[in-house]
Amino acid sequence: MKPHTLSVLVENKAGVLSRVTGLFSRRGFNIESLAVGTCEEPGMSRITIVCIGDDAQIEQVMKQLNKLIEVIKVSDISDMDRVERELALIKVHAEPGSGRAEVMQIATIFRAQIIDVGTKTVVLSVAGDTEKIDALETLLRQYGVKEFIRTGKIALLRGSKTVKSSK
Amino acid sequence: MKTGAKILIESLQREGVETLFGYPGGVVLPIYDELFDSPLNHILVRHEQAAAHAADGYARASGKVGVCLATSGPGACNLVTGIATAYMDSIPVVALTGQVPTSLLGNDAFQESDITGITLPVTKHNYLVKRTEDLGHVVKEAFYISNTGRKGPVLIDLPKDVSTKEIEYEFPENDELVLRGYQPTYRGHARQIEKALELIALAERPLIYAGGGVISSDASRELVQFAEMLQIPVTTTLMGLGAIPCDHPLNLGMLGMHGTQYANYAVTECDLLFSVGVRFDDRVTGKIETFASRAQVIHVDIDPAEIGKNKKVDVPIVGDAKGVLADMCARIQKKAGYQNWISRINSWKQKYPMRFREDGHLRPQMIIRELSDLLAGEGIVVSEVGQNQMWTAQYFCFKKPRTWITSGGLGTMGYGFPAAMGAHFARPDQPVFDIAGDGSFQMNIQELGTVSHNRIPVKVAVLNNMFLGMVRQWQELFHNRRYSFTELPPVDFVKIANAYGVDGMRVDSPDQVREALKTAIETEGPFVLDFRIEREENVFPMVPAGAAINEMIGGCQE
Ligand SMILES: Cc1ncc(C[n+]2csc(CCOP(=O)(O)OP(=O)(O)O)c2C)c(N)n1
């Protein structure tokens, strides 16, 4: 059982996302993370889904997704050379004089941006792979993470390879 | 200028629809108004669930798409059980529902329900049409999706303003369907087919396991030819009955929980299982680890997601059963011989036949055998769910495909009677019998009104045991005979039938059975037979849930 990253190209029609997520809940598959947005093809969206399961379960997930009329293409890109990013916004407790400087230092090291500063808090924005964001979160916990939100993973194959509609 | 309603009706005609089943209401009034002088035959049911089942029964008997129509909210919700029933058995149905006007969508308006949301998990696809301009194309797409690939129900939700709006509309000459994400594979992969034939040639104890997919792809001729060419015995699922004639020497009847002993032994001992149009349902396999555990498995199915879903498969063949079987027949070079295997199976057949006690009591199995004799291969038999269904599957001799109609996947009580009405419109030349339990019949008994009103000549044979029989059987076997809420008070079904203007007859003893069945057949309109059967008769053999399928109780012992 390991996380699999699926790249799903769908027609951008009302209700597509609920068809996809409904399929997961109905068949008892678990979604770790899900990100969706428009893509290079007009009228299409690309969904990146991370789910955990053994090979047979993932195969079944992909086959069931493929059955949806509006799903054009499903690819498991877990074992392919790819780039991945997640975006996270983290609101950390950081009062002047007690830890604020340290938080800012950590942000620099992780190439996170400070996008808001309040009297007692700062908000960091960070993009990167899951591990990087996890690591940053762990570090910041000791200062007090007041709110933490992440987008879910998006992924693309490296080089000229693409996940395109050929279904 | 045409209204949406007019476009809808014309679209249905273009799809070849002749009959639809429905029930009116506020938001579908424009459609009903259009129906009033259209050539379509609309049957007014007494409950929308029956409209969905009738459309489904029509589809199963004809192979064409069945159509039902309901109003928004409660009407649409009442269709859901029927839609789910069709979904589980992969039956092509198009369900049309009214919806509140688009301006009120999402406002919890009077009689609004999110029917596309509700039916998402039980439809192959569904549509909420927001523009009258799209309607014609959507109907075309819906019929296409419903009756191609792995078939299934498709729902179209029609807001009231979409059906009242008038637009300039001509049906396009060549309205091409571009469905990039929907391209079913019909032809089986040549190399896989070769491989399957090689495995069969090497096998010593091959067995064909055929299901509803063979019926829905009209592949029974090819199936029988394939079995005969190679002399391989065939067992079918509940849904596959009729794919090979009951009295064919290679036929082992049904397998699974209430299958024949010889079919279940054959599955357990075979070294090659050729599965076609089946889905390894748990009612068939019992404990999956022991199902055909000595066999290499070939699986032919139009739906790639079925292959490997429940059981590991050695040779997958994605394709339409009819085409794949035809391809296979064309490539068979020499006949293999499985004489030892066949004689072993035949000795099981002799040793463990299907049988029941014949001691002067009125037993359901005998009623079904008599009906089978009387109809002699003619007619369509529909069942409800429970013991009545299993006895019919076990004792009725089905000779042709599409003559046996039952809710296999969902197991919907109340399915049979309305489905029988639908079957009649698909095959008006054929006598149609609904074999019912007293519990199931009461789930859609109001349809006596529909058959009476329209003189639909459906015959209902109630196997009246005054119990929810199948549940009582489980209580007897697994809950110490504690009959918790499964006893039904006696009902005089003849009187109820009469109240609706339908004739009926009560039968108490075996010697009345034949005459009573004949009377029903000879009566022109609908007819209800109330058979007062032995109250605690059981369906045997039976594989307890979760056991291996060769571990049957109540079969014949050596
Ligand atoms: C709608 C629905 N509710 C409940 C069940 C569960 N169930 C399966 S068989 C059965 C009993 C059926 O009784 P009856 O129709 O009298 O038929 P019999 O088994 O006596 O032939 C029940 C309650 C079901 N299949 N469908």
Question: For the largest beta sheet of chain B, what order do the strands appear in spatially?
Answer: 3-2-4-5-7-6
Bound molecules: thiamine diphosphate
The unreliable regions of chain B are none
Largest sheet of chain A, in brief, is: 5 strands, antiparallel
Task: Round the Cα radius of gyration of chain B to an integer and report it.
Answer: 24 Å
Strand content of chain A: 35-45%
Order of helices and strands of chain A: EHEEHEEHEEHEE
Major sheet characteristics of chain B: 6 strands, parallel
Describe the protein's architecture and organization.
The complex is a heterodimer of chains A (167) and B (558). The radius of gyration of chain A is 19 Å and the shape is elongated. Chain A is an alpha+beta fold and 167 residues long. Chain A has helices spanning 16-26, 55-67, 100-109, 130-141; strands spanning 2-11, 31-38, 44-53, 71-76, 82-93, 113-117, 121-128, 145-150, 154-157. The model of chain A has no long low-confidence stretch (mean pLDDT 93). Chain A is 28% helix and 41% strand. In chain A, the strands form two sheets. In chain A, strands 5, 6, 7, 8 and 9 form a five-stranded antiparallel sheet that branches. A four-stranded antiparallel sheet of chain A has the order 2-3-1-4, covered by helices on one side. Chain B is an alpha/beta fold and 558 residues long. Chain B contains 22 helices and 20 strands. Chain B starts with a strand and ends in a 26-residue tail after the last strand. The mean pLDDT of chain B is 97. Chain A binds chain B through residues 10-11, 14-15, 18-19, 22, 26, 56, 59-60, 63-64, 66-72, 165, 167, and chain B through 116-117, 120-121, 124-125, 128, 145, 150, 179-183, 303-305, 308-309. Thiamine diphosphate (TPP) binds next to helix 16, helix 18 and helix 20 of chain B.
